[in-house]
Design goal:
Layout: H1 2-16, H2 18-45, H3 51-65, H4 99-105, H5 124-157, E1 159-160, H6 164-177, E2 184-188, E3 195-197, E4 203-207, H7 214-229, H8 231-244, H9 249-273, H10 279-295
Parallel strand pairs: 2-4
Antiparallel strand pairs: 1-2, 3-4
Helix pairs in contact: 1-5, 2-3, 2-5, 2-9, 3-8, 3-9, 5-8, 6-7, 7-9, 7-10, 8-9
Length: 307
Amino acid sequence: MWRSCVLCWMSWVGGIMDDVVLSLVTLSLGGSAVGLLLMGLARLTRSRYAARWRCMVWALLCLRMMLPTPLPPVAVAPIQIPAPVVESPVVTAQGDANPWEAEVSREPNLEPEVSNASWKIPDVSGWAAMVWALGAAVVFAWSVVAHLRLRRYLHRWGTEVDHKIVIDCYLAQADRLGLRHVPKLLWCPGLAVPMLAGVWAPVLLIPADMEEDEMLEYALLHELIHHRRRDIWLKVCMVLTLSIHWFNPLMWWMVHQMERDVELACDETALKVLPQKQHRAYGETILRAAQRSSMSIGKEVVPKRSE
């Protein structure tokens, strides 16, 4: 009995998700084509078009790909007239038509038919819908768990910055960008480079062993630009888009390109607000931060609680 119920449910799900799966695959292929075109134009045009314009296109593309609307249903004629069925009378052995047997043959067959619909195996679209839903749930849950782990780590080890020099530098960079409200500044042991975290209540994290030099000044400026541009929300759109289109290998590459364009757009803004003589120092700071970040990949630093 339970097997029959499960198979009926799977068949029902497959019938409902048929159009959704088809439109999802079509949308994923179309979005991949647009993403490849955008990446190709970025290589051809080089510096003619700023990265911030590409970020706007990426954002619109993510918003469209987050809404896999089903295809419109096929139009059906409002009036359908069945074809007439002509029944010939039964012919006897003498060749004459028997009207009594003809009347009996016109009676409908009232014998019940045995239906095997409950044991019907679901079609390919039903299985594809279930596999897609499982994969989307896994990818999205992975991102949520990573976010919750970071929040737990910050709640345990993060401490608010009370160093006057660091706070003055932080507020100076905020004034340079014209920001009235800035995220809370926290020390985070085990962190390689500064980073902005949090969606509803963002915080700016800096490594506990970071020195008060030009690297700190430019790093704070870089992260505050991310905050002003609302790049956190764009990354949320990336996560949702990747969760929906996880089955498309090109989508993972596109998300990597989106993150790269977000960083380039942030650097372009920083170079606009900094004087010309500081551009070289800012570029060296970004390279040093990238090296520290690459060296910390795969290494988990767990600070020891001081007694």
